[in-house]
């Protein structure tokens, strides 16, 4: 019995040693596979120039404001830089908008030369920049900032027709107010002009509108890209659909003149003295109205 017990104990120890050796072998082989997988799935990075500190609008780039970091190549935007000397040699570059620390620098956020900040760099290649005169009313009390979206309206009072208003452009991007292109502008200011981005056809229409009437800007929400279909608005449209009563001024002179003849029939004329023009809706030819004398005058 005693001998058999000793043999069993030795066998158990031997089996334990074998189990330990096997487990170590498996673990070492597993760790080797993990390392290979880790190496095969390593993220590729490239040197990228970022802001080392906040850079203000129009500020010239200097080496102390820049640094190079390793950035994942798959997430880099277009137009980045890999070396600091690309941004500070020669004429250098300046910030076209406020840039925060650790932000990647791109060609779109910088001017071509530190001595000139150009609005042309902000333009879409297929668009045009036009300036329109504004004041406290037409410029929304100075609450329009660079980067905002506006609608452009044209109003005119011709001699041969009633005053009217037209929509010229929708969702036009404001590039500058006055001489300020800073999209970080945070204080309202009444200026004399606003520069907006429009299509070539819209630029042509605005140029004509400025010579024949008045142009107004209407501010819209910066996420609103909708297009609203509007018709020409005239004075007779300035109500909510109710009957409009217009009191005419009395004419100078005596009683009504003889009714004129046209095509062999008598044409009705407005009565002398105060009268009321009653507009009763509209037809395909325009508002339907009648002239009625004011009773008791």
Describe the structure.
This protein is of the alpha+beta class. The chain folds into three domains: 45-117, Antifreeze-like/N-acetylneuraminic acid synthase C-terminal domain (Type Iii Antifreeze Protein Isoform Hplc 12, Alpha-Beta Complex), CATH 3.90.1210; 122-233; 239-293, no CATH class. It is built from three helices and 13 strands, in the order αββαββββαβββββββ. It has helices at residues 2-40, 85-88, 200-212; strands at residues 45-51, 66-72, 128-133, 149-156, 164-177, 193-198, 214-220, 233-234, 244-248, 261-262, 265-266, 275-283, 286-293. Strands 3, 4, 5, 6, 7 and 8 form a six-stranded antiparallel β-sheet that branches. Strands 9-12-13 form a three-stranded antiparallel β-sheet, with no helix packed on it. A hairpin with a 7-residue loop joins strand 4 (149-156) and strand 5.
What is the element layout, followed by pairings?
Layout: H1 2-40, E1 45-51, E2 66-72, H2 85-88, E3 128-133, E4 149-156, E5 164-177, E6 193-198, H3 200-212, E7 214-220, E8 233-234, E9 244-248, E10 261-262, E11 265-266, E12 275-283, E13 286-293
Antiparallel strand pairs: 1-2, 3-6, 4-5, 4-7, 5-6, 5-8, 9-12, 10-11, 12-13
